TrEMBL record:
InterPro entries: Thioredoxin-like_sf
Official protein name in the record: Ferredoxin
Organism, scientific name: Sulfurovum lithotrophicum
Entries under Gene3D superfamilies matching the protein: Glutaredoxin
Highest taxon of source: Bacteria
SUPFAM superfamilies noted in UniProt: Thioredoxin-like
Length: 125
């Protein structure tokens, strides 16, 4: 087999959406919550410190539609949605899921907010 550039083992999509000041709408990055503003940088720094930043690619993204459970991030492959994030939780997710291979179930979105997907083939007009 040809030895080319390896694809990433994981993409981590971190929601970076912030509501404008004074807006009651929940968001993953909040003016009133300094830690929420530091989570992406923390994620990237930890991946760098552990030497896995190339094979694990952190991506800043817009709203992932689970704002009530924020801050959230989605790990692919696996379609694992982590909610209510803090720096400590991110550290555990990196060690146990990304490096260790075991999803950190306590931090995964509850099933009632993450039901089975509807196949686009069923919905397409
Ligand atoms: S603002 Fe992050 S999921 Fe909507």
């Amino acid at each position: 087999m040809m030895q080319g550039v390896p694809q990433p083992a994981f993409y981590i999509f971190k929601c970076q959406q912030s509501a404008p000041p004074g807006m009651p709408k929940p968001s993953c990055v909040s003016q009133n919550d300094p830690e929420s503003q530091q989570l992406f940088q923390h994620l990237a720094q930890q991946l760098m410190m552990k030497g896995i930043i190339g094979t694990v690619q952190p991506i800043q993204t817009g709203c992932l539609n689970r704002c009530q459970q924020g801050p959230v991030m989605l790990v692919e492959p696996g379609h694992t949605m982590y909610v209510g994030l803090t720096k400590e939780k991110i550290d555990r997710i990196i060690d146990e899921h990304i490096i260790g291979g075991n999803v950190v179930e306590e931090y995964v979105i509850p099933d009632e907010f993450w039901g089975e997907p509807i196949p686009p083939s069923q919905m397409a007009r």
